[in-house]
Amino acid sequence: MSTIIITVDLGHFKAYRVTMDPVASPKIDLFVSYDSIEGHGKLGEKLSDISGRFVGGGGEGEVAKGYGEPHHLESEIRKKLVKLISQDINALIKKEDCENWYLAASAKINKDIIEKLDPEVKSKLDKSITLDLTKTHKSEILSHFT
């Protein structure tokens, strides 16, 4: 059994296996890494027909009318991505049967991810930090949890 470190943001998911060696320093290996297409890009790039959203130009005698405005679209996309991340963490921790695991996620999503975890997975969570370490080199990651 080993320790798992998971670093996530809305666009990246990385899982590292930490193997403790009694003689040498811990060994860290990246064993899961993927990018979420929905987590990348700007909201305006995801909406189609941007120029056709308004009927009438609002010129003299015309009234501009908006249709299909993205009132809460960003929030809904974030909720969906957090749910998917939580499901992936649940599956990974159950599959790996690790003793304990660590989580690094930005302050915007950390609490939401933990709330959506299964109780048995949450009970193995040893430490959670509110940092985005997805772009941090693997040799520096462990130092954030010790």
Give a short overview.
The chain is α/β, with parallel strands linked by helices and 146 residues long. The chain is built from five helices and seven strands; from the N terminus they run βββαββαβααβα. A hairpin with a 3-residue loop joins strand 1 (3-8) and strand 2.
Structure, described:
This protein is of the alpha/beta class. The chain has one domain: eRF1 domain 2 (Nucleotidyltransferase, domain 5, 2-Layer Sandwich), CATH 3.30.420.60. Helices cover 30% and strands 26% of the residues. Strands 3-2-1-6-7 form a 5-stranded mixed beta sheet. Strands 4-5 form a two-stranded antiparallel ribbon. The protein is globular and about 80 Å long. It starts with a strand and ends in a 5-residue tail after the last helix. The model has no long low-confidence stretch (mean pLDDT 83).
Name the features.
Nucleotidyltransferase, domain 5; single chain; 7 strands; 146 residues; 5-stranded mixed β-sheet; alpha/beta
What is the topological layout?
Blueprint: E1 3-8, E2 12-19, E3 27-35, H1 43-46, E4 54-55, E5 65-66, H2 73-96, E6 100-105, H3 110-115, H4 119-124, E7 125-129, H5 138-141
Parallel strand pairs: 1-6, 6-7
Antiparallel strand pairs: 1-2, 2-3, 4-5
| Largest sheet geometry | 5 strands, mixed
Any idea what the radius of gyration is? 21 Å
User: Helix coverage percent of residues?
Assistant: 25-40%
Low-confidence stretches: none
What is the CATH domain class?
A: Alpha Beta
- Which class of secondary structure composition applies to the elements? alpha/beta
Distance between the termini: 19 Å
Q: Judging by the overall fold, what is the CATH architecture?
A: 2-Layer Sandwich
| Cross-sheet strand order for the largest sheet | 3-2-1-6-7
In one word, what is the shape? globular
Mean pLDDT: 83
CATH topology (fold) name: Nucleotidyltransferase, domain 5
Number of domains: 1
Number of continuous helical runs: 5
Write the element-wise H/E pattern from the N-terminal end onward: EEEHEEHEHHEH
Give the CATH superfamily.
eRF1 domain 2
DSSP E strands, number: 7
